[in-house]
Design brief:
The chain contains eight helices and 48 strands. It has 827 residues and is mostly beta strands. The strands form eleven sheets. An eight-stranded parallel barrel has the order 25-26-27-28-29-30-31-32, surrounded by four helices. Helix 2 crosses helix 3 and helix 4 crosses helix 5. It starts with a strand and ends in a 9-residue tail after the last strand.
């Protein structure tokens, strides 16, 4: 993670029209729940008077569709057409974009569209296509001579970027960032600059929903002529054989000036309390239009270690001085921790054995597509942490830098994964970009170079991985290289011979065989389980409703149930752990269904983050620091009186006792892998369970038969928002009966009104729903829906949300919006 500190703010966005809402409580500054995690600020989002990094997210003009360029015909026109700065069509400087829609990044234009049966199944039946973005801005004369860089953090999928009529970048992946030097192309002194981006989302790089557009943040960087390049400070702590610690600092400087310059690089290590604890420095000469690297080591005595329970983060504050004057500065985070993969004993963090309890995840969320605000990324990782997950696998691409920042702060381990398997120079450059950007993050413990490639069992694949692994280790030798293999090739040359840790996808029957064949190789399950279930459904209907039972009986042919898959990992000490496919549902891959099903059913949680039964199964398997007890199914089964209902209890206690309407049904010893089951003749009322450990009651839970829904309830994930125009919060929508109990079978239409903010997405986790994800309406699905609200830039006070449904009492709530320092904006 890298961060630049900032000064000052800018003007806000236009506020939404206000209206009166009847609120269940008063006061703009509602109390924050005690379990709330503080909002994590965007990474590298700040600026100083020394070197500015300005948000470039606001005020883009957008056009969905392609725009044909008028081709030259005459000799003179052709001559002019081939010259620098002479781009035509929508890339031209003077192109009239005044009729285009104004959008704010991150932006996914694909999620705004309808579903169409003729579109790609794996990508979620959404029409894709081309989109154009344009942004006009000015630079003062005082910026002349500075280094000017445009950063586009994610363009789905292939893109061409122009600045002032010049092509400045062709981007061949939807998952890498573009750092574009505009210094030679920029206009100063008030003359307009125009950036144009054509994004083609029809290109397929994944077999899942990829969205389309400028779906991650954009930045404009202004730095001194001699400056630290982007991702240019590498300061990852290393423990020495004698137990001491060093922070090797490697700072890469660039000089866009016309003469060589001697610069001094200084770094100060700041401990988690803000106290400087050590420093180092080095002088280096930087030639004109070249890079130079300053390298030195800083010794640290007795640092506080970064761990899952205590993710202590230090800062390395690096400054550049020329002639004694500070010209650039950058703060990077650092975590003091050790990692080790052992062939026989698995994974160790800080010399303590730890089983990787991981999940794989794509990057889309209900209502948002792939354009997630930073706070929604944080919400998703917090949900995984609550589940008992301690590790994330990026699937199958480099994440946003903001995700890794949150993982550092929450204490989650990361397998960072490359998207495109290719060892040619252009593709190695993408791999190196990922490693350079992410190598300071203590959360990152593995570099993965591919996923399930057909060449994995061939000499060609071996040679490609050998080259990719070498490229990784040129930049970072502190973490092992792995690859996610879905085949086992014992006795022949394959990629397992070229990696440090062998990753296996869905190979339960081959774990022992591979361990015997590679006794000196560490092994992990890099992708696991592929069980499927539909939230709130307890009987599969494959032919009709396209729903799957939540009892963990359904899985894809290559996979296993959640219970069987984890047992295979937990009972083999040599396996480092597993990454379950997946933590959240995602668009696309609707297996085992096709139309009208548009989203996957693999998730431990649905697309909104509402838990499925798998969530509680894994909590019971993974959580050790608190008692877990949960019952399924709900207890609303009209018409099935007297018929046996399958009941499952998930617990990490010693035993579970079950009662229905006070009648004792027995006590069972907890099975830590398979969970516990009863067949209970249905009678309306109350089904309750008690868990005991060491003979003492440690947990109690119950499900009750509810009445018909009579009212709605709105519950935000947090009761405070930053008024920066970026912070967003998911709000849970549910129906209640006359006694105020959640109705798990409610499937009702709901409409929303908002003041003091905006609705940016709606969802309900129903893989078969084709309701729009943008707008102010969404149906409940099996009791729940979600509406995502966002603050407005520069506005403090309260955000008010109201929900209505025909025949039900409405619900209203408010979230306090705090005045917040504004991310410096270049609009």
């Amino acid at each position: 993670m890298k961060r630049r500190t900032f000064l000052g703010g800018t003007t806000g966005l236009t506020a939404a029209a206000a209206f009166d809402l009847t609120l269940p409580f008063a006061g703009a500054e509602a109390a924050v729940p005690s379990n709330e995690t503080p909002h994590v600020k965007p990474v590298e989002s700040y600026a100083t008077g020394v070197g500015d990094r300005l948000s470039f997210d606001d005020g883009w003009r957008f056009y969905r569709g392609d725009i044909a360029e008028k081709r030259p015909h005459s000799g003179d026109d052709t001559y002019q057409y081939t010259k620098a700065g002479a781009a035509g069509g929508a890339a031209a400087i003077k192109f009239d974009d005044s009729a285009w829609r104004i959008v704010y990044l991150p932006h996914d234009f694909v999620v705004e569209g309808p579903f169409a049966e003729s579109e790609n199944v794996a990508q979620g039946y959404r029409p894709k296509g081309v989109g154009w973005y344009r942004k006009t801005f000015t630079l003062p004369e005082s910026d002349r001579g500075k280094y000017i860089e445009l950063q586009l953090d994610g363009m789905a999928t292939n893109a061409t970027v122009w600045c002032n009529g010049n092509v400045v970048r062709h981007n061949w992946s939807g998952y890498d960032s573009a750092y574009i030097d505009l210094t030679a192309f920029a206009h100063f002194g008030g003359e307009p600059n125009v950036v144009a981006v054509r994004v083609d989302s029809d290109v397929l790089q994944g077999w899942w929903y990829e969205g389309g557009g400028l779906y991650r943040h954009a930045w404009l960087v202004k730095r001194a002529p001699v400056h630290l390049i982007t991702d240019g400070v590498y300061a990852h702590p290393r423990k020495q054989p004698d137990g001491s610690w060093l922070v090797p600092v490697e700072a890469t400087l660039n000089n866009v000036g016309e003469r060589p310059v001697t610069a001094e690089v200084r770094s100060i290590v700041i401990d988690p309390s803000g106290r400087p604890v050590a420093r180092g420095a080095r002088t280096v000469s930087v030639s004109s239009l070249e890079n130079s690297v300053a390298m030195f080591q800083i010794a640290i005595s007795g640092p506080r270690l970064w761990s899952l329970e205590d993710p202590a983060l230090y800062e390395v504050r690096t400054t550049v001085l020329v002639d004694g004057k500070e010209v650039d500065r950058l703060t990077t985070t650092a975590g003091f921790r050790t990692i080790r993969f052992d062939p026989n004993e698995g994974f160790f963090l800080n010399d303590r054995h730890l089983k990787l309890q991981g999940t794989c995840n794509h990057q889309d969320h209900a209502g948002l597509g792939v354009a997630l605000p930073d706070s929604i990324i944080e919400f998703r990782l917090r949900k995984l942490k609550e589940l008992g997950c301690n590790a994330l696998r990026m699937s199958h691409n480099a994440p946003t830098r903001e995700l890794l920042d949150v993982a550092d702060r929450l204490g989650l381990l990361v397998m960072d994964e490359n998207r495109l398997f290719n060892s040619s120079p252009d593709y190695l450059a993408m791999l190196k970009w990922m490693v350079r950007r992410d190598r300071n993050h203590p959360s990152v413990i593995l570099w993965s170079v591919f996923n399930e490639e057909p060449l994995q069992g061939t000499p060609e694949g071996y040679e490609m991985v050998r080259r990719m692994a070498t490229a990784v280790k040129e930049l970072d030798t502190t973490r092992p290289v792995t690859a996610a293999m879905n085949g086992v090739y014992i006795g022949k040359v394959n990629v397992a011979d070229a990696v440090d840790v062998v990753g296996l996808n869905y190979n339960i029957d081959n774990y022992d065989k591979l361990h015997a064949a590679y006794p000196n190789k560490a092994i992990t399950s890099s992708e696991d389980t592929s069980a499927v279930m539909t939230r709130g459904e307890y009987q599969s209907d494959r032919a009709g409703r396209h729903v799957l039972s939540s009892y963990d009986d359904e899985f894809q042919p290559w996979g296993a149930t959640h219970r069987k898959a984890w047992k295979a990992i937990a009972t083999r000490p040599f396996l480092a752990g597993a990454f379950v496919w997946t933590g959240f549902d995602y668009r696309g891959e609707p297996q085992p269904f096709e139309w009208p099903t548009a989203s996957s059913s693999f998730g431990i949680m649905d697309l909104c983050g509402f838990p499925k039964s798998a969530y509680y199964i894994h909590q019971a398997q993974w959580v050790q620091d608190r008692p877990i007890l949960h019952l399924i199914p709900h207890w609303n089964w009209p018409g099935r009186e007297g018929q046996p209902i399958r009941v499952m209890a998930m617990s990490n206690a010693d035993s579970v006792e079950l009662r229905v309407n006070g009648r004792w049904l027995g006590e069972q010893k907890v099975d830590p892998f398979e969970m516990n089951e009863w067949k209970v003749p249905y009678q309306p009322g109350r089904l309750e369970a008690v868990a005991r450990k060491g003979g003492k009651i440690v947990a109690h839970t119950a499900v009750e038969t509810t009445g018909a829904p009579v009212s709605l309830r709105l519950t935000p994930d947090r009761f405070a928002l930053e008024g920066d125009g970026r912070d967003a919060v998911p709000v849970t929508v549910e129906a209640l009966d006359a006694k105020g109990r959640h109705v798990p079978t409610a499937n009702l239409p709901v409409r929303f009104e908002i003041a003091g903010g905006r609705i940016i997405g709606v969802g309900n986790g129903d893989a078969n729903s084709h309701e729009p994800e943008k707008g102010q309406a969404r149906s409940l699905y099996n009791g729940f829906a979600q509406v995502i609200v966002q603050s407005e830039r520069g506005r403090a006070g309260a955000l008010r949300l109201k929900a209505t449904s025909p025949g039900l009492r409405s619900a209203a709530m408010q979230i306090g919006v705090r005045a917040a320092p504004q991310v410096p904006l270049l609009s």
